[in-house]
Specification:
The protein is an alpha+beta fold and 124 residues long. It is built from four helices and four strands. The N and C termini lie far apart (73 Å).
Length: 124
């Protein structure tokens, strides 16, 4: 088998999910016996101070005999997370302008912004 045939064999089916700095690849590949398996790859981009970047990749190989149990456990784990924590993305709290729902209703104040003064640059 030449390199081109090998490359074509690897490209049986592929899907890409872009999620911020992370990209997930779902690729169907073939074993030497011509059976199929799934690889799930997480690729995360890291930027250096000089502007250059690199990617870190993590890969999972998932074979047909494990699909059913894997799907059940993935569904159970994701359902648990959504039931316990809801669909709010916690990382959004790290944004500078994030306000908790209770803060929006005036129930809670943030001492670091209580003394904030709105400045109009035309006044300077």
């Amino acid at each position: 088998m030449n390199e081109k045939d090998h490359l074509e064999q690897e490209e049986i089916f592929s899907q890409v999910l872009r999620a911020g700095r992370r990209t997930y690849f779902f690729d169907v590949r073939a074993t030497k016996a011509e059976d199929y398996y799934l690889t799930i790859t997480e690729s995360k981009k890291f930027t250096h101070d000089d502007g250059s970047f690199h990617y870190k990749k993590h890969k999972i190989y998932l074979y047909k005999e494990d699909f059913s149990e894997f799907n059940e456990m993935l569904k159970a784990a994701t359902n648990y997370i959504l039931e316990e924590k809801g669909e709010e993305v916690i990382s959004e709290r790290h944004q500078k302008d994030f306000k908790r729902p209770s803060e929006l209703n005036g129930e809670e104040t943030n001492p670091s912004t209580d003394s904030f003064t709105d400045v109009n640059f035309e006044d300077i």
